[in-house]
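Colleagues,

Please find the record for the two-part complex below.
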Amino acid sequence: MSRHATVALKNDLAELERLSNVIEGFGKRHALPTAALFDLHLALDEILTNVVSYGYDDQHEHEIIVRLTLGGDHDSRQIEVEVEDDGRPFNPLETAPPDVSTSVEDRPIGGLGIHLARRVMDDLEYRRQRGKNVLVMRKTVAG
Amino acid sequence: MQIAEAKKNAVVVLSVDGRVDASNAATLEQKILAVIAAGESRLVIDCSRLEYMSSAGLRVLLIAAKRLTTGKLALASLNPQTRDVFDIAGFSSILQIHRTQDDAVAAVQ
């Protein structure tokens, strides 16, 4: 059974549905727990939304590559997901966490996506490589 | 995503079915803003059939909360995963979340 899945997405929010199907297929194939799958989904969704919404200065079609890999052994499996885009350089690890304790009136609208991705995944790594942003996110799944 | 609308006494109940992400959050936003624009001031979002919500959906809920008077927006029946997202985002402390639709309706009544 393949422990990899790769999908090339266009910079269009409508592609989130296709991404969703790929993640669900990957989860079913490897019998991943619902909660872990939900987190993976959320993190990828937020990162992709960010790239599509803010990553490009032109109106052209771009390709964003998502690679899913299941590593580790049977007792402790690790999901690794890599997102590669040719948008403007952007390191999500350098964004300041939002203040999530203010009142409704003072709470800024937006800025939560990257915070959510960082919180639900175990670790994130960013590098700028050959003119592309490469973000790697990992999550360990028990059992 | 599908949205069903019902009215219980003076409270509008919007039941959201499916997934809310950046590709469709605008539809939910338009629906909520239309309800508020029509003069409704008490709103319950029933999430018993909501599978998933990303920050794009949270953004819409925050906009609604800012428009309505404090205490007149409530959510009902969040699944555990979505409830976690609300907790991480710090939304559990600014939005009323109830176990059932009836509880939520009573709370904004």
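The radius of gyration of chain B is 12 Å.

Comments are welcome before we finalize the supplementary table.
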